[in-house]
C-alpha cells in the first residue's frame, strides 16, 4: 500500500514505520521532525493547516516518482500525530492542536476517497489515566463498551476525535478505525521501567495495569490495514499480559474491590481487554516484558 502516516517520528511511530516498510508498504511520514529512516519519505507539514494537509496527501512521496506515470491517491492514511499527553503545553493548546489536526487529516482523506483511515485514540478516554485522584473503572476487564469519561484536555480531544471520525464514516461509508492505544513501551524501557513496576504495582494503576510494546503496535496497524469492511470501529490496543508481576486475581482483589468482574481472566491477563481486536482483526501480540527482563 501507499500510506500517508502522520507523526511517524514520535515514540510510537519510529517503531511502527520500519515495521510497515518491512511489510512492503510505501510510506510518506508527515511530521515536523524527520524520521530519517531508510526507505521512508519525510515531509514537514503543519497538520493544523488544512491546505498543507490536502497538499501533502495529493503530492508525490519521493522525487523518483517524477519518472513514469504519476501515482494515484494513497491507499491508506494512519494518523498518529498529536501532543502526546497533558503537561507539555497549555491545556487549550493540547486540545486545539489534537482536535483540529485530526479533523483536517480525516476530512482530506475522506474527500479524496482514501479507502482506509486509521487514527490514534487513547486509553485516557476511559477517564482513569489522567483523572484527579483515583478513579475506578465501572467494570473489568475494560472493553470498548466501557463509558468514555474524559477528565483532561488530552482525553477530551481524543473523545472529540472519535466523534469526528464516526461522523465522517457515516457520511462516506469508508473504513475508519480508531485505536485506543495503551501506554507505549519501547524495547529499551523494559529494563529501565519494569523492575520498579514489579516492586510497586501501584505505579501501573493509571494505565489499568496494561501496556503495548511499540513493535506490536506496528502489528496492530498492519492488521487494520489488511482488514476491510468494518466501517467505523474503535479497538483497545495492548499486549495480552498485565505490566505487573501479580496474578490478575490478586490485582483485582487489591486494586478493584467492589468493581464488577466480567468473566473469568487468565492468570496474568490484561485488564485492558483486547478481545475485540483479536476477534475482528486477528490481532495476537506476544507477551513481552517477562521475557525482556527475565522475570517468571
From TrEMBL:
This is Nucleoside-diphosphate-sugar epimerase. InterPro entries: Epimerase_deHydtase, NAD(P)-bd_dom_sf. Residues 3-200 form the NAD-dependent epimerase/dehydratase domain. It comes from Roseivivax halotolerans.
Amino acid at each position: 500500500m501507499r500510506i500517508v502516516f502522520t507523526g511517524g517520528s514520535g515514540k510510537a511511530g519510529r517503531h511502527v514505520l520500519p515495521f510497515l516498510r518491512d511489510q512492503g508498504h510505501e510510506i510518506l511520514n508527515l511530521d515536523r521532525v524527520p524520521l530519517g529512516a531508510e526507505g521512508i519519505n519525510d515531509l514537514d507539514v503543519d497538520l493544523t493547516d488544512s491546505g498543507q494537509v490536502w497538499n501533502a496527501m495529493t503530492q508525490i512521496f519521493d522525487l523518483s516518482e517524477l519518472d513514469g506515470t504519476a501515482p494515484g491517491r494513497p491507499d491508506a492514511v494512519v494518523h498518529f500525530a498529536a501532543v502526546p499527553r497533558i503537561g507539555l503545553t497549555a491545556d487549550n493548546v493540547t486540545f486545539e492542536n489534537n482536535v483540529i489536526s485530526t479533523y483536517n487529516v480525516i476530512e482530506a482523506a475522506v474527500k479524496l476517497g482514501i479507502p482506509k483511515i486509521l487514527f490514534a485514540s487513547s486509553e485516557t478516554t476511559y477517564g482513569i489515566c489522567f483523572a484527579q485522584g483515583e478513579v475506578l473503572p465501572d467494570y473489568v476487564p475494560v472493553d470498548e463498551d466501557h463509558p468514555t469519561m474524559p477528565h483532561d484536555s488530552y482525553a477530551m480531544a481524543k473523545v472529540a476525535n472519535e466523534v469526528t471520525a464516526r461522523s465522517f464514516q457515516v457520511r462516506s461509508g469508508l473504513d475508519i478505525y480508531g485505536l485506543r492505544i495503551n501506554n507505549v513501551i519501547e524495547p529499551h524501557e523494559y529494563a529501565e521501567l519494569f523492575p520498579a513496576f514489579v516492586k510497586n504495582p501501584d505505579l501501573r494503576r493509571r494505565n489499568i495495569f496494561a501496556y503495548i510494546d511499540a513493535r506490536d503496535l506496528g502489528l496492530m496497524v498492519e492488521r487494520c490495514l489488511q482488514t476491510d469492511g468494518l466501517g467505523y470501529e474503535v479497538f483497545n490496543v495492548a499486549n495480552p499480559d498485565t505490566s505487573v508481576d501479580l496474578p490478575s486475581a490478586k490485582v483485582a482483589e487489591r486494586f478493584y474491590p467492589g468493581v464488577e468482574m466480567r468473566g473469568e481472566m487468565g492468570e496474568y491477563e490484561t485488564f485492558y481487554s483486547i478481545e475485540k481486536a483479536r476477534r475482528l482483526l486477528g490481532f495476537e501480540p506476544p507477551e513481552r516484558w517477562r521475557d525482556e527482563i527475565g522475570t517468571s
